[in-house]
């Protein structure tokens, strides 16, 4: 890729961007995003998305925050789209023994699609969210997600599959701040959400019981047996949707030493392993996407294998295969692998098969 990365030109000429639609959740991050943009001269409209019945509390909280901030807040109902593009693929993936990240699917396929559609309907050019990331333009005029100032809050992983249609219109003010700074701004504004706890669970499964939720949707994971590290059959397990690669707790076996889930096989059997055997030298990928729509070039990158992981060096061969100079712990099928270079998201794909 030619040229150097430059600051995005959509966030520094306020005379030409007087309207912005901000995705709100009622939480501290999106509420402070509204205030920052107001202070920078934008005419802000809020939008809260009702993804599922579990999101009604967020809708109510967003309306309340919008009232405190003096902005209109429109409600976007995308429940049918969310079920089709996020909930069903999530459940199907778990039932195959994978570990999906629904935010990676939701952001391009539902959340930002809904925000762009609403912005077009309202005659608004720009959209914004409270994600901790940045947008930058490269020397070829392409926009890319960039890691934020706050390494501890980095949410670039979740935005890895956004394309130019979104990135060219996206403003991410919180990419320049630490979380403590954002909370302090909320306190100064006397927002009710200033000290609200961060959400740590999947938004449509607030109690964290993935297996119970998936079964309630009418899905059933494959049956099979737990297989000990030495190959012994330990008997039937509860169904593959109750387990994920790398899991250590809740296995229901006592072998005299700690074990974890190393592999969930196609036949439903779950291979356990002892500490030290959870490391792999590479993996294969499917459905590779890049911000500019072009193939991801072969070469050296940093890659994250889960949202909270640190980026580690790797080599991508240009044909869907990744190799590590040092083994990496438990890359799980279904998770996204996100490639970085110079702090910028260069592409991503879904892990299919770890390589020992």
Describe this entry's structure for a reader:
This protein has 356 residues and is α/β, with parallel strands linked by helices. It has three domains: 183 residues, Rossmann fold; 53 residues, Adenine nucleotide alpha hydrolases-like domains (SH3 type barrels, Roll); 77 residues, Beta Barrel (Elongation Factor Tu (Ef-tu), domain 3), CATH 2.40.30.10. The chain is 24% helix and 28% strand. It has seven helices and 18 strands. The strands form four sheets. Strands 13-16-15-14-17-18 form a six-stranded antiparallel beta barrel. A five-stranded parallel beta sheet has the order 4-3-2-5-8, sandwiched between helices. Strands 10-9-12-11 form a four-stranded mixed beta sheet, with no helix packed on it. A hairpin with a 5-residue loop joins strand 9 and strand 10. Helix 1 crosses helix 6 and helix 3 runs antiparallel to helix 4. The longest helix has 21 residues. It starts with 5 loop residues before the first strand and ends with a strand. The N terminus is likely disordered.
Placed side by side, the strands forming the largest sheet appear as 13-16-15-14-17-18
Structurally, the number of domains stands at 3
Number of helices: 7
CATH superfamily of the largest domain: HUPs
Shape descriptor: globular
Order of helices and strands: EEHEHEHHEEEHEHHEEEEEEEEEE
**Uncertain spans:** 1-16
Which CATH C-level class of the largest domain is it? Answer: Alpha Beta
Count of beta strands:
18
CATH fold annotation of the largest domain: Rossmann fold
What is the mean predicted local confidence, pLDDT?
A: 90
Reported for the largest beta sheet, the result is:
6 strands, antiparallel, barrel
The CATH architecture of the largest domain would be 3-Layer(aba) Sandwich
Helix and strand content put the structural class at: alpha/beta
Q: Whole-Å distance between the termini?
A: 32 Å
Helix content: 10-25%
Kindly estimate the percentage of residues that lie in beta strands according to DSSP: 25-35%
Rg, Cα atoms, Å: 21 Å
């Amino acid at each position: 890729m030619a040229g150097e990365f430059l600051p995005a030109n959509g966030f520094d000429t306020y005379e030409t961007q007087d309207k912005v639609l901000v995705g709100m959740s009622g939480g501290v991050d999106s509420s402070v995003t509204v205030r920052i943009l107001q202070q920078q001269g934008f005419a802000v409209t809020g939008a809260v998305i009702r993804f599922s019945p579990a999101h009604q509390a967020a809708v109510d909280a967003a309306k309340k925050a919008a009232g405190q901030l003096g902005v209109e807040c429109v409600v976007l109902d995308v429940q049918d789209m969310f079920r089709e593009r996020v909930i069903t693929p999530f459940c199907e993936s778990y039932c195959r023994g994978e570990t999906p990240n629904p935010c990676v699917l939701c952001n391009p396929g539902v959340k930002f699609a809904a925000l762009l559609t609403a912005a077009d309907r309202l005659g608004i050019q720009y959209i914004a969210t409270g994600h901790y990331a940045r947008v930058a333009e490269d020397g070829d005029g392409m926009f890319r997600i960039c890691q934020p100032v706050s390494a501890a809050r980095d949410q670039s992983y979740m935005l890895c599959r956004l394309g130019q249609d979104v990135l060219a219109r996206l403003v991410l003010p919180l990419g320049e701040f630490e979380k403590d700074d954002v909370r302090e701004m909320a306190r100064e504004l006397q927002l009710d959400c200033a000290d609200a706890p961060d959400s740590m669970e999947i938004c449509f499964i607030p109690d964290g019981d993935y297996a119970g939720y998936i079964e309630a949707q009418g899905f059933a994971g494959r049956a099979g047996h737990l297989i000990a590290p030495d190959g012994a059959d330990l008997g039937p397990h509860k169904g593959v949707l109750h387990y994920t690669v790398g899991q250590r707790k809740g296995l229901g076996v006592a072998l005299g030493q700690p074990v974890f889930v190393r592999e969930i096989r196609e036949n439903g059997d779950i291979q356990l392993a002892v500490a030290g055997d959870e490391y792999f030298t590479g993996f294969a990928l499917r459905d590779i996407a890049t911000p500019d729509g072009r193939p991801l070039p072969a070469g050296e990158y940093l890659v994250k294998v889960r949202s909270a992981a640190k980026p580690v060096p790797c080599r991508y061969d240009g044909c869907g295969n990744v190799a590590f100079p040092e083994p990496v712990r438990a890359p799980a099928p279904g998770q996204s692998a996100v490639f970085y270079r110079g702090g910028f998201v260069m592409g991503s794909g879904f892990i299919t098969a770890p390589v020992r």
